[in-house]
Amino acid sequence: MSPLHIKKGSTSHSAYNLRPTFSDVQEKHTLAVIVDNEAGVLARVIGLFSARGYNIESLTVAEVDHASGLSRITVVTTGTPQVIEQIKAQLGRIVPVHDVHDLTVEGPSVERELALLKVAGEGDKRVEALRLADIFRANVVDSTLESFVFEITGTPEKIDAFADLMRPLGLVEVARTGVAALSRGV
């Protein structure tokens, strides 16, 4: 049946139906934003998120090219596909933004995070904390008679799992860097 013979209200798709369909499903996306390393840029990027009610799950920023004066902001955010597209479009319109990459859709990427976890405990709980740290390849970076501070790097899911196991063993405090991410390959 040609597109001209489709009945009104038909669910058939044609070349004339160019409107994209978006889902209501929330998706997590990692965005890499290259910006000028100057005062106020981070505030403008974050302002975009807060003004529109977009959530930021993780945020890291650091200078990546001193000679060119560029910084990289890595933002992990959640939203419907339509919201994610709006975020990317609005980020691209901010003047000091040079480039916006959605690492989630551009192909395979590597994501890592660093966390420090303070665990207080005695006796068997202390021994178990050390055993689990060894399994997760966490390093002891500080030790007292009452507590350990563990350093762990890995995916956010790995850090979440380690923290969950440390809670019943005396987890006192957690500090996390946020996600650093790069696309794989060239």
UniProtKB/TrEMBL annotation:
Keywords, A to Z?
Answer: Amino-acid biosynthesis, Branched-chain amino acid biosynthesis, Transferase
Q: What class of enzyme is it?
A: transferase
Q: In which pathway does it act?
A: Amino-acid biosynthesis; L-isoleucine biosynthesis; L-isoleucine from 2-oxobutanoate: step 1/4; Amino-acid biosynthesis; L-valine biosynthesis; L-valine from pyruvate: step 1/4
Pfam families from the UniProt entry: ACT_AHAS_ss, ALS_ss_C
Q: Could you tell me the EC number(s) of this protein?
A: 2.2.1.6
Q: Which reaction does it catalyse?
A: 2 pyruvate + H(+) = (2S)-2-acetolactate + CO2
For this UniProt entry, the molecular function terms from Gene Ontology, in alphabetical order, are: acetolactate synthase activity
Q: Where is the ACT domain?
A: 30-105
Q: Cross-referenced CDD domains, in alphabetical order?
A: ACT_AHAS
Query: What functional role does this protein have?
Result: Catalyzes the conversion of 2 pyruvate molecules into acetolactate in the first common step of the biosynthetic pathway of the branched-amino acids such as leucine, isoleucine, and valine.
Family according to the record: Belongs to the acetolactate synthase small subunit family.
Cited PANTHER family: ACETOLACTATE SYNTHASE SMALL SUBUNIT, ACETOLACTATE SYNTHASE SMALL SUBUNIT 1, CHLOROPLASTIC
Quaternary structure per UniProt?
Answer: Dimer of large and small chains.
Q: Please state what the protein is called.
A: Acetolactate synthase small subunit
